[in-house]
Amino acid sequence: MRRASSVLLFRTLAAARAGSATSIAVPNRFIQATLYGTTAGSSPSSRRWFSSILGVAAGTSLGVGGALIAASSVSHEALAKEPPPSHFLPNDVVLYQYEACPFCNKVKAFLDYYDIPYKVVEVNPLSKKEIKWSEYKKVPIVMVDGEQLNDSSAIIDKLGERILSKKKADSTSEEDEETKWRRWVDNHLVHVLSPNIYRNTSEALESFDYITSNGNFSFMEKISVKYAGAAAMYFVSKKLKKKYNITDERAALYEAAETWVDALNGREFLGGSKPNFADLAVFGVLRPIRYLRSGKDMVEHTRIGEWYTRMESVVGEPSRIKA
N or C: lower Cβ tally within 10 Å for the chain? Predict the structure, then answer.
């Protein structure tokens, strides 16, 4: 199985709904001291970094990782990509992202499954210079044949209307179920993730080691972000637990995984024999932490592994192309 792409946070740090940030009260002076060892005397670049961390703290969460268990009964005929007719495909798709962002990974799961070629521009979460041209300053941003699309769920809806227009004749009940679980991903699942991947200092360092290894950082930024970010997010995760009424991080994570498996109700996917947008959304936000401690624990202690393995097979290799 291929290693799932990224784990994050800078978006964990930056989103709290389907890709939007929500503010949360954080002891600024305390975290600032943790980040810089000083308070009022921090440099402009330090303040920008601090703001990024707090924005992050605002309320997103990271994806819960997936599966270690291979499903022996998988039907490989059903597990195939579902590319749309070529005349529906966009000519040029560019994704502006953080590699470890769960919402960016949600968009990539959609693009990969439908085999839509796309280029990637990795955004530096500190300077955001790659998206200075945009009034919208969050990721993901997708440019489709020159048209800017913002917000992960809105991006998927817009692309879905374009490339799957003939497939929108599904029954109302199926559409309602799909919509319900897509909202569950954005409004619940993502919120249990940050408290898990930052629940102690070792897991916080593990998460930021992955973030800095896969993100767009300079050498010095990697060092400062890894240790300062891990320290900050360890404390921020405690605030997130309180905000979302989480008492036991792992229990909340396991419950979310089991809730999703129950929703499948014995089906290979929520969409039946093939994934629907809700399957892709859950898979996308979980994919980033696939190999982190929290993701491994989730797979070991819940039934989500077989579904995740099927999703990994059907989504297949990335349809990403070189910029």
Answer: C
Indicate which residue of 96, 98, 254, 283 is catalytic.
98
Distance of CA 289 to the CA centre of its chain: 9
101 is catalytic: yes
Give the Å distances, CA to CA, from 62 to 48, 189, 194, 285.
22, 9, 5, 7
Q: What's at 61, amino acid-wise?
A: S
Judged on CB neighbours under 10 Å (0-12, 13-18, 19+), 244 is: middle
The secondary structure of 183-242 as a DSSP string is: HHHHHTGGGGTHHHHTSSHHHHHHHHHHHHHHS---HHHHHHIIIIIHHHHHHHHHHHHH
170 three-class SS: coil
The pLDDT confidence band at residue 323, using thresholds 50, 70 and 90, is: confident
Please name the helix (run of DSSP H) or strand (run of DSSP E) that holds residue 282, with its range, or none: helix 277-286
Catalytic annotation, pick one of 10, 50, 96, 101:
101
269 near 75, Cβ under 8 Å? Answer: no
Query: Which of helix, strand or coil describes residue 90?
Result: coil
Single out the catalytic residue among 103, 110, 208, 210: 103
**Would you call 50 a catalytic residue per the annotation?**
no
CA distance 112 to 46: 36
Using one digit for the tens of pLDDT, what is the confidence trace for 67-116? 333 333 333 344 568 888 888 899 999 999 998 889 999 999 999 999 99
Counted residue by residue, the chain has a size of: 323
**At how many degrees (to 10) do helices 201-214 and 230-243 cross?**
110
Report the alpha-carbon angle 125-297-198, nearest 5.
35
According to DSSP, the residues that pair with 225 across neighbouring strands are: none
**Strand, coil or helix: what is 99?**
coil
Catalytic residue among 104, 110, 254, 269: 104
3-state secondary structure of 124: coil
Q: Provide the token pair at 254.
A: 């396991």
